[in-house]
Design brief:
- The longest helix has 19 residues.
- It is globular, with a radius of gyration of 17 Å.
- Helix content is 31%, strand content 26%.
- The chain folds into 2 domains: 119 residues, ATPase, nucleotide binding domain (Nucleotidyltransferase, domain 5); 107 residues, ATPase, nucleotide binding domain (Nucleotidyltransferase, domain 5, 2-Layer Sandwich).
- It has 7 helices and 15 strands.
- The chain is an alpha/beta fold and 249 residues long.
Length: 249
């Protein structure tokens, strides 16, 4: 294993978080370092934040990233919760240019899923596993037989006449001042729609809202077993590092 230690970075709609990851163990070797996502969240502005995070750790090695959108061969092709200037940006090259470090970036939810399937709540599960990250948006990840279906954007299915994440994300709960019970009813609708489309055997809930499982998990009604992600909101960092390790091995 050439790269045991990789700087994992999770780019979110409200914050950019990083930590050095031991990829063989799936463990953070440092405390997370978080900086606010700049406004506007242009490629140049976010790249500067990533440079500051790398400098904070005095990092000179490989960087793995998770980005909130579809990333195809290093190029961003959707940007729902960040500046539209990201469209068609080669994010790998951008990060390498500003940090001097080799970089590999994948969809942020895919990164979280990789961590959970390798070391977390989905480890060893060979059926159909759906992971949902609940935050500014709704990131979705699907594994079948342990294999990832990349860039699955089911946070954007239509629910109540609009993007599902505008109705059932954690940002929707906060912005509309919903109680946890009211929000859980919305999120339950979303889960039932996904079950109708995908029929998963296991649903893993991650992202910031997953830390509040005691306030909403018992209010959900699904066929599949629902559990919270073991990595909680560290999954994106760990998974980004794992994806980079696979790329540069």
């Amino acid at each position: 294993m050439k790269y045991k230690k990789i700087l994992g970075i999770d780019i979110g709609g409200s914050g950019v978080k990083g930590a050095i990851v031991h990829t063989k163990k799936g463990k953070l070797l440092t405390k997370r370092y978080r900086l606010p996502t700049p406004e506007p969240s242009t490629p140049e502005a976010v790249a500067e934040v990533i440079r500051k995070i790398a400098a904070h750790f005095d990092w000179k090695g490989v960087i793995g990233g998770g980005f909130p959108g579809v990333v195809l061969n290093g190029t961003v092709v959707t940007a729902a919760n960040v500046d539209k200037g990201w469209m068609n940006t080669n994010i790998n090259k951008l990060i390498t240019d500003v940090t001097g470090c080799p970089a590999h970036v994948v969809n942020d939810a895919d990164a979280a899923g990789m961590a959970e399937m390798k070391f977390g709540a989905g480890a060893g599960h060979k059926g159909v596993v759906l992971l949902i990250t609940i935050g500014t948006g709704l990131g979705t990840v699907l594994f079948s037989g342990g294999q990832l279906v990349p860039n699955l954007e089911l946070g954007h299915i239509i629910l109540k006449g609009d993007d599902a994440e505008k109705y059932a994300s954690d940002a929707a709960r906060k912005n509309q001042n919903l109680s946890w019970e009211d929000w859980a009813g919305r999120f339950d609708e979303y889960l039932q729609r996904l079950e109708f489309l995908i029929w998963p055997d296991l649903i893993i809930l991650g992202g910031g809202a997953s830390k509040k499982e005691d306030l909403f998990l018992k209010l959900l009604h699904t066929r599949a077993k629902v559990v919270t992600a073991q990595y909680l909101n560290e999954a994106g960092i760990v998974g980004a590092a794992l994806a980079a390790r696979a790329r540069f091995k």
